[in-house]
Structures are given as structure tokens and as C-alpha cells.
Amino acid sequence: MFRNSVSWLALMLLATSTSLAQVVSPAEIKDPELRSLQQQYLDDLRSAGQDILSSHFDYPFYLSRKLDLDEAEQQHADQHSIRFDHYNGRTVLAITGNYYAAYSAEKVNEDQRARSTFLNVVLPILKGAVPRFQANREIQGYAVEVSHHIMGKVMSVSMERPENLMVFLPQNAAIKLVAAKDETAQQAALLEGQVFLNAAPITIWLNGEGPRLAGTTPAEDGSTHRQGSAESVGADIVQGSNAGGRSPLPASVSPKPVSPPPAPVRDTSPQALSALQNTNQELIAKVVKDLDPQAHFVAYAAQSFVAFRQGIYLELSMNTSLPESASGSRYKLAAMAFDDHLAHLVRPALAYFKEDPQFDGISFSTTVHVAGKAATSNPSEAVEFFFPFSALRCYEKYDCTGQQLIDAGTVLINGERVALDLQIAEGSSNR
User: Which of 69, 185, 262, 412 meets the CB 3.0–4.6 Å disulfide criterion with 74?
Assistant: First the structure.
């Protein structure tokens, strides 16, 4: 009896010391407000730490004060990670850690790496933390940053480098995510947050088939962008040993499914455009007739199909009139044209193309006029928004914001491609 009691006490002390090791001490936090929260909810933070570490991870995972540590170094490094912090003016629960899976740069692209680490690490962390703070009005969100590794070659020399995934979710979105019963609900919640891979914004699509909504630069490792499920990524990961080296996964791991052949290249020849125009002429005429009161289609230009960036788009040409009070740069006028006019046409226009069309998207092309301003003092701006159907459908179902729709497409102002941030553009005066 005594021996059993001692064993039980030893286990309790070990669990307590482990949970303490994961939580930043309130005395280390300089901000008085955050320090007070850390002290007030210390027990909840410790419990969250226990829940996180009790989760199953495919590869070694450590809560850590520092990212990008070698595994051998991590075992002796500071693992105090869970703390309250500020992110974009919000009070958030922040958690950082190192995940010792290394993805093959040749076989796993950045979208797949982000999705795999999110599903295998970030989501279990959120499931361990959110339930304990979801009713706390002082906590406005969650920021989780996890480092994983990439294996590749530079000038025929094998190299390994870290890559950091950061996920921010507002409180309501985090609650919806962990409570979601299906992938669709999870995806909708995830789109309410922000995701960064090595500080570059990206969008994680859980089914691997959504549009690439956030503009990112090509991966430096030279990987190609291929779609694949999170499960299929596992066969292209190598796991770190305790000595910090890497060894292949055992042969029992199922091989990665063969990717489907790439879609055929779209025929954008004049003959193909003409044939598409003839096939859809009656439907286009109905669109123009029904939507003209709100779209203000131009009378001098036919609504026609155009080739753009290896795709075909139905170009809808119209006029946008902004109030006399509108002023500012071409970026601000373009942003106002989208918010006040074009965004309201997306869902009505898509209603005419429920079947799978034989083209790639819609181009909303408009000439922006400011009421009461002479052309010489305030010339009109020609703005074109090229949106692929995948992004338009996402916006139609309220799964994507207007900004995400813009990021998924291409914007031209007076024939020049631009990056358009609605919030920044409309918040400026004369930029």
C-alpha cells in the first residue's frame, strides 16, 4: 500500500512539474495587463499544457520558447511556451513549438507542408487550449507558431532548413473550428483567420482543392505546386533521430497516391473564343438584359470572351459611378468600385453559370467615374478584375471575403497589374 502511494505521488509530481515547464512564469511578462492575466489564469494555462502534450503527434513535438532548434538542442532548451500576448491589437493566447518532421522539398510543396503541420500539430493544440478559454471575454484570439523542417538539395548538396507556420484565429473562429463536425465547417472557420508560412500570407485548403487565395512567392526550394491530401504527404517525410540526424520512414508507410494527370491546356485561339461566343450568345444576352439596371453595361462594347494568362474569361464591361465626395488615388477608386459596385454583381452573375462552363472565370471590367468632376481634373480609371470560378464560388458561398477574392484573382488598373488591399486603399486619402 505504501509503495503504491509513493508511486502515485511521484506520478502526480511529475505531471505537475511537466505542466509548469510549459507555461511562462507571470514574473517574466513585462506588460502589466498580460502579466495579470497570466497570474489569474495560471491553472487553466497549466491544464491546457497538459492537454496539448497528451495529444498524439506523428513526430516529436516540443513546446518551446525558441523556434528552429535542432532536436538534440531542444531537449535541453527552455520549453516555457504558453503565455498571453498581443497580436494586431488583440489579446491572444500564444503558443510556440518545434515539430520534428522534415518534408521532402522535391515531393511536398509549401501548400501541402502547411496543411499537414496545421492538421497534425496546430489543430490538436487548439483543441487542447480553446475549450478552456472560449468563454473568457478577455481572450480575443489564439496565435500558434510551429516550426518544421524541409529537406532538399542546393548545388547537389543535401541541406535541411526550418520553416515556420503561424496561424491566428479570432476567438469566435477558433470556437467554430474545434467544434466543427465536418471539413466544410472547419474550412469556413479557418478562413476567418490568418495563416503565414515564413511570414508570407497563405491560405490552407483542408481538402487540397481550393483556390490559392493569398499571394505567395514561389518556394525557394524549387518544389512544384501539386495538390494532395494531408494524409498523402506522410510518405514524403523523414523523421529526425534523437541525435539530430534524419532517417527514412519505415517501409510500412503507404506510398503516396499517384497524382492525376494535369488538366489539358486551354485553347485560347481566336477560333476557340469565337466558338465559345456563339455557343453562349443567348445566355450572355440574358445576363446583360437582367443585370443591366445594377451593372450599367457599356453600350459600345459587346460582352465577350477574352484570353488572359492561359485562360479564357467572360469579360463584362460596365461603368462605375462614384459619388462626388470620392477622391484619392487610383487604388482607392478601384477599391471603392469593387466594394460599392462590382462585389454586388458576383452572386447575380454566377447564378447564370451553375453548370460547369467551358471557360475559366469572369472579368469585371469597369471604367470608374467620379460624379461632378471634370475629366481633365479627375480622369476616369479603367479597372479590370479577373476572377477564376473557384474563387468566385468560394465568395458566393460566403466562405471567402472580398479581399480573398481579389487576392485569388488579378487586378489591372489602366492596363497595369497591381496589388489591391481594400482596407489600406480605402483608408488612404491621396496615396
Answer: 69
| Residue 366, strand partner residues | 318, 383
Instruction: List CB contacts of 201: < 8 A, sequence separation 6 or more.
Output: 194, 195, 214, 215, 216
Q: What is the largest CA-CA distance in the chain?
A: 95
Please tell me whether residues 82 and 226 are part of one structural domain.
yes
Q: Is residue 260 part of a domain?
A: no
* Residue 408, pLDDT above cutoff 90: no
Residues 324 and 367 grouped into a single domain:
yes
Residues 19, 140, 200: CA angle, nearest 5 degrees: 90
For the full predicted model, state whether its pTM sits above 0.90: no
Q: Could you list the residue range(s) of the whole structural domain that residue 379 is in?
A: 270-427
* CA dist., res. 26 & res. 355, Å (int): 58
- CB neighbour list of residue 363: distance below 8 Å, 6 or more residues apart: 306, 308, 313, 314, 315, 316, 384, 385, 386, 387
Instruction: For residues 392 and 387, give the distance between their C-alpha atoms in angstroms, rounded to a whole number.
Output: 7
User: Is 257 within the bounds of a domain?
Assistant: no
CA–chain centroid gap for 32, Å, is 33
Q: Distance between CA atoms of 124 and 119, rounded to whole angstroms?
A: 7
Average pLDDT score over the chain = 80
- Same domain assignment for residues 107 and 145: yes
The long-range contacts involving 379-383, CB below 8 angstroms and separated by at least 24 positions, are 381/330, 381/333, 381/334, 381/413, 381/414, 382/412, 382/413, 382/414, 382/415, 383/320, 383/333, 383/334, 383/337, 383/411, 383/412, 383/413
Could you say which DSSP state residue 78 is in? -
Last residue of a domain, one of 247, 280, 311: 247
Task: Please give the grid coordinates belonging to residue 87.
Answer: 497580436
Per-residue pLDDT reduced to its tens digit, 78-127: 889 999 999 988 999 999 999 999 998 888 899 999 999 999 999 999 99
In a domain, 255, yes or no: no
Owner of C-alpha cell 473564343 = 273
The amino acid at residue 121 is V
Domain count, the chain: 2
Measured CA distances, 43 to 25, 70, 391 (Å): 12, 30, 44
The answer on 120 and 22 residing in a single domain is yes
SS3 361: strand
258 three-state secondary structure: coil
* β-strand partners of 386: 363, 410
